[in-house]
Amino acid sequence: MVPGLKAVVFDWAGTMIDFGCRAPVVALCKVFENAGVPVSEAEARADMGKAKSDHIASILAAPRVRQAWTDRHGQAPGEAAVEELFAAVGPMMRTAAAECAELIPGAADVAGALRAAGVKIGSCTGYTREMMADILPRTAEQGYAPDMLVCAGETAVGRPSPLMLWRNLVELGVWPASACVKVDDAEVGIAEGLAAGTWTVGVAASGNGVGLSAAELAALDPADRAERIARARAGLEAAGAHVVIDTVADLPAALAQFRFG
After folding, report:
1. N or C: more exposed end of the chain, with fewer CB within 10 A?
2. Using omega within 30 degrees of 0 as the cis cutoff, is the peptide bond preceding 176 cis?
3. What's the CATH class of domain 7-21+101-255?
4. Tens digits of residue pLDDT in 130-186
5. 69: helix, coil or strand?
6. What residue ranges do the domains of the chain occupy?
């Protein structure tokens, strides 16, 4: 492993589990549909990576959704609407997330190699602690149990602020941030890493930017598949990612490009 590397902090859905980041989309689309204001998958994905309450607020703030909510409910969506939808999405998210807790190929091997090299493994997520309750034992059974987990709502503000990432580093007892790496499939996660002062690695093929399961992605025409991955890669590069890889299995080669300390 690369000399000087002290910690790698991973995102969860789309990075280490849930190829295509499907669980949040399924739950969000369902809860908006139940509220009489259906949203598209693209609208549900637009602010992926934020804490789920912030994510819901961002969806409601989109002009089309805001107008549709106003037409359906007779008033513009406010804090009460956010709270109502967040309360409803919790159980749906927990069910969907647990069903999508399969590790992305290579995740356990990469984490194992890092740990064997003495590198600390942190993690943070837009899921709440309750939403993670059924995921953690399932990923542990598959060989992935990070040293630290920070969930949505456990810092004063979430991503793209650096607070969740900094809390990981504090609890892991590692510094400087320049000796650490944030790995994430969402632009807000890359922004989080940059704000925290870490190196950042974007994950394109398995994440929110492509939004397809491994089977769906493999079934595409090769040119279509390459184009979708290229679009996701471009978004992560535009967000400032130092390196962009297809999946977490490619992380060792990416780490070799950095000089830590």
Report:
1. C
2. yes
3. alpha beta
4. 889 989 999 999 999 999 999 999 999 999 999 999 999 999 999 999 999 999 999
5. helix
6. 7-21+101-255, 23-99
Neighbour-count burial for 73-98, b at 16+ CB within 10 Å, e otherwise: eeeebeeebbeebbebbbebbbebbb
Reference 145, options 161, 166, 123, 113; nearest CA is 123
- At the topology level of CATH, where does 23-99 sit? DNA polymerase; domain 1 (1.10.150)
Choose among 209, 164, 158, 205: nearest CA to 187: 209
pLDDT of 11-65, one tens digit each? 999 999 999 998 888 889 999 999 999 999 899 988 887 888 899 999 999 999 9
Contact criterion met (CB below 8 Å) for 248 and 109: no
With beta carbons less than 8 A apart as the criterion, state whether 154 and 167 touch.
yes
Task: Write out the two tokens for 66.
Answer: 């805001």
Residues with a catalytic annotation lie at 11, 52
186 and 201 Cβ atoms separated by less than 8 Å: no
pTM, two decimals, is 0.89
**Phi, psi (degrees; rounded to nearest 5) at 217:** -65, -40
**From CA 34, how far away is CA 79, in angstroms rounded?**
18
In whole angstroms, what is the distance from residue 167 CA to residue 220 CA?
A: 40
Mean of the per-residue pLDDT values of the chain:
95
